[in-house]
Design a protein that fits this description.
Blueprint (H helix, E strand, L loop, with lengths): L1 H17 L1 H5 L3 E2 L21 H13 L6 H18 L8 H11 L6 E4 L3 H9 L4 E5 L17 E8 L3 E5 L7 E6 H7 L15 E4 L3
Antiparallel strand pairs: 1-4, 2-7, 3-4, 3-7, 4-5, 5-6
Helix pairs in contact: 3-4
Pfam family, one: Peptidase_C39_2
InterPro entries: Peptidase_C39-like
Keywords: Signal
Length: about 210
């Protein structure tokens, strides 16, 4: 009997080793509401600069249990821009520190937090716990075919899910961005906080976990 059990365990181990996707069987998608940063298709200023505002509005709407229309999202983004101008003196290219201030000081979400030098598992664990993750990126490294070439120097997205290969994101930089997929290695490589001058890829690796 013991020998049979050992044999069964060995066979199961070999099977799972040969098919790691089945072994992991690890896929989660959070129902984070989506908006493009230009919800009505007008990509002129200020909408062309609203990736951070859109990301904050989407993530916070989810943790607050709110379903927003396109008009609602547009109003949220404009209000966030006003908040930024009053408190930061600018409303374009906010790094993770000021983006966190939007969540905490505008929305009152004191549980949102920055994690520096995260791993892909950091992001997956947050999603497993039910928390969307805001990721700052060097947009030109994402290779999104819907971006106007060469893509944004600095950008921000919301990770809302993953499977064994990809991160599933709300990508505000295109109207096709609901549930867009980036390879996990692609997103981790592109992850960089804002750098005002010089090479954006020198920006620190960081994310914002939007807890509730």
């Amino acid at each position: 009997m013991i020998e049979r059990m050992k044999y069964a365990v060995a066979v199961a181990f070999l099977f799972l080793a040969a098919f790691p996707a089945l072994a992991a069987n690890d896929a989660v998608i959070l129902p984070v509401p989506y908006t493009a940063q230009a919800p009505f298709g007008n990509w002129s200023v200020p909408w062309s600069d609203f990736c951070e505002e859109a990301s904050v509005a989407m993530a916070q709407a989810y943790v607050a249990g709110r379903q927003l229309s396109a008009i609602d999202f547009a109003i949220e983004m404009l209000r966030l821009a006003i908040f930024e101008l009053r408190n930061f003196g600018y409303d374009k290219d906010t790094g993770v520190a000021d983006t966190l201030r939007m969540l905490r000081d505008y929305y009152g979400n004191t549980k949102a937090r920055i994690v520096y030098n995260p791993t892909s598992e950091t992001i997956r664990n947050a999603i497993r716990d039910g928390f969307p993750v805001i990721v700052p990126v060097a947009g030109q490294l994402l290779g999104n075919p819907h971006f106007k070439s060469p893509g944004p120097r600095y950008h921000m997205v919301v990770v809302k899910g993953f499977d064994n290969a990809d991160f599933i994101v709300n990508e505000p930089g295109t109207r096709f961005g609901n549930g867009w997929r980036y390879g996990q290695s692609t997103l981790m490589n592109a992850m960089h906080d804002f750098v005002a001058n010089g090479d954006i890829t020198t920006g620190q690796k960081a994310v914002i976990i939007v807890e509730k």
